[in-house]
Design a protein that fits this description.
The protein has one helix spanning about 1-15, and strands at about 20-25, 35, 45-50, 65, 75-80, 90, 100. It is of the alpha/beta class and about 110 residues long. The chain has one domain. The protein is globular and about 35 Å long.
Length: about 110
C-alpha cells in the first residue's frame, strides 16, 4: 500500500512540475486557455517570465517555456485581442524572480 501511494505521489508531482510548457496555437478553438497580455503588472492574473530552457519551467509559478511543437506542450494557449475574451490576463516580466500569481483563483487554469 505504501509503495502504491509513493508511486502515485511521484506521478502527481511529475504532472504538476511539467505544467508550464506552452504552445501558442493559431485558432481559439485549439486552445486550453485564452490569454490576454495587459499593459500594466497590476492588471494581470499572472506575471510570466519566459525561460530559456525547458528544465527551468517547473511548477505553476509563471515560468513558461514556449515549445516548438503542439505535441510537446502541456498547455495550449491562444492570445486574444480583447481582455473580455480572456480566461487569463498575463504580464510579461523582465526577471525570473518577478514571476508569480496575482490572482490565485485562476491558478487552476495552468494545472
Amino acid at each position: 500500500m505504501k509503495t502504491s501511494l509513493l508511486i502515485l505521489s511521484f506521478l502527481f508531482v511529475g504532472f504538476i512540475t511539467n505544467a508550464q510548457k506552452v504552445y501558442s496555437v493559431k485558432y481559439e478553438s485549439q486552445a486550453n486557455v485564452k490569454v490576454f497580455v495587459v499593459d500594466y503588472e497590476s492588471q494581470c492574473d499572472l506575471k510570466v517570465y519566459k525561460v530559456s530552457y525547458e528544465s527551468q519551467a517547473s511548477g505553476n509559478d509563471g515560468k513558461w517555456f514556449f515549445v516548438d511543437y503542439e505535441s510537446q506542450a502541456d498547455k495550449k494557449i491562444f492570445f486574444v485581442d480583447y481582455e473580455s475574451q480572456a480566461d487569463l490576463k498575463i504580464f510579461f516580466v523582465d526577471y525570473e524572480s518577478q514571476a508569480g500569481w496575482n490572482n490565485n483563483s485562476k491558478k487552476q487554469l495552468m494545472y
